[in-house]
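User: Hi! Is it possible to get a structure for several chains at once, not just one? Here's what I have:
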Amino acid sequence: MSLGFAITARDGAARRGRLSTAHGDVETPAFMPVGTAATVKAMRPEDVAQAGFAMILANTYHLMLRPGAERVAALGGLHRFMHWPGPILTDSGGFQVLSLAKLRKLSEDGVVFQSHLDGSRHQLTPERAVEIQRLLDADIAMVLDECTPFPATEDEARQSMERSMRWAERCKRAFRDVSGYGLFGINQGGVHAAPRLASAKALTGIGFDGYAIGGLAVGEGQAAMFTVLDTTVPALPNDRPHYLMGVGKPDDLLGAVARGIDLFDCVLPTRSGRTAQAFTRFGTVNLRNARHQDDKRPLEDGCDCPACGFYSRGYLHHLARGGEILGSMLLTHHNLRYYARLMEQMRAAIEARQLAALGDRLTRDWARGDIEPC
Amino acid sequence: MSLGFAITARDGAARRGRLSTAHGDVETPAFMPVGTAATVKAMRPEDVAQAGFAMILANTYHLMLRPGAERVAALGGLHRFMHWPGPILTDSGGFQVLSLAKLRKLSEDGVVFQSHLDGSRHQLTPERAVEIQRLLDADIAMVLDECTPFPATEDEARQSMERSMRWAERCKRAFRDVSGYGLFGINQGGVHAAPRLASAKALTGIGFDGYAIGGLAVGEGQAAMFTVLDTTVPALPNDRPHYLMGVGKPDDLLGAVARGIDLFDCVLPTRSGRTAQAFTRFGTVNLRNARHQDDKRPLEDGCDCPACGFYSRGYLHHLARGGEILGSMLLTHHNLRYYARLMEQMRAAIEARQLAALGDRLTRDWARGDIEPC
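Assistant: Yes, the chains can be modeled jointly so their relative placement is included. Here is the combined structure:
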């Protein structure tokens, strides 16, 4: 295997590990901020690192359209281009082709689509997806897959999954083994146990550096998602990282870590930061709400981010109402720091075999709701 | 006088000085970044300071409407509200009432207008303008004035100026003297020498901590502006700071410093940063232009800002095309750093009695234009 992964502690199904890549190590369980177009929106990369993140995710679909994978390669690769010296995982573009692109046409070969930016025609095959991710210089590349829509019957889910498995095999063949770089397979199968297990078996047979679970957080709800994890995670190779794609809310992360997930990515903390939604120990807070306008208190007591260290809720409310860029900057920073602290807490709890107790405490606090204005 | 001002060197009409306020000293000539609604857009305040600025400007008009002067006062004043511990100058709101507000009605008493945000009715009198600026805790407050429209006949300019002088006197009476805080008068009179000189005489008679020149950079052109400065600056008290409001481009600053101006403010570096226009030693650069897309070079060789230290023109172009917030953050930072370095160069040149030589060098470089792509 070209990516190192050492599990250093366990607590039930939860794992504490260290993933080693060409651009550095990642303590797991870990959350990856999303840097869609080679920028974690409203954040300087050095602040993303300082907030407590070792690895970020970037989007193949966006980058292949603009500025183009060959251009990123000519400009020194994604790390240099966006000034992120740490590890980068890229998705394969499959999910965004289905959610963003126009006039897409799927076939066994791959997918042909029109750019949502300028209508230009593009093709993405398993082989091209791997090539693009190599041009971007991603430490971790993902196989091209078809994200099965929700809802889907078991039959539909199986057929879609089987094509994804054939694509996974082509990706594996196209992937060039280099030390510190790896390719992850993606488990599909909708909310149905049988295709999920068949997918796990197929991926294990091909052999990947890590195993992702895709096609979740698409409307099935948390209970159904956790049921899929309960079925699927035990069927994945135990000694390799498990990555739950596109998830999620803080309680999703908690439940998934407890079920053996090591990696996450989600736009929630960054996108929420740009819409004045903040994550705190006592649940989410909408800073556009007028009840904050005279509030001298920090957003979250005890948080060490700049938003909480230097500003009142009254000021953050003022920035949010005015649509000020600084509001997006500060709330994104806060939300990312909240997510980083949540992962730090979970890592420490697994080491101490106290994850269940941490979960009880977090859940109680989230349910308590935001503190009343003074 | 409640504000300290010491002139430490002269070079022709240019002055090198130090302005002392309740919240710290300002080395002059100085440029003030504009923090309209209690934020220098797309910048963290600590980065504004680190870029080389001691004092910023905030807008009375915007802050009286949202969040309201009384609210800012209850939240600890503007310094604490926006986390800017250094000196702050506030304008009086007169200029924005005329340029932004709806249904404004001017009378001898003051001006009644509707907010451009929500249509609510507000009144601004000389007394209220001073009170608002005291509530904001501005180190330097400006008198309420009427910014004479351009073009205006000499007669129109005189009548408008005379009302501004009566308002200036009322502001002075309303202003409470506190150590480290000051009130500046504003010279008006359009582009006509006689009303400008009459205004200078009237303001000197009233007596202010500093003297601003208003009503310029409104379409009269640089030559006419410099002619007004040539007439007016010598008529202002020599031992007090001279502030040219709302100016300007780098060559405006150079010409005005040479004519005895000590303070400037302008949205140009910050607004340009949000529209992908960058100031460099070799003139302005439009980063949206496709010629930058493959360019590995920094925006400006030798600049010590983060945009130039960590990124290629190709990346900055990519951010600009995508409308990414990081693009606004980086280019605003660069432009402010450019302005700060320009002021540093001018201060050093005045000390060395080399301002004319610096001006020749700057002008030659600006005219040379941006370096060719490699």
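Chain B has a mean pLDDT of 96. DSSP finds 15 helices and 16 strands in chain B.

User: Great, thank you!
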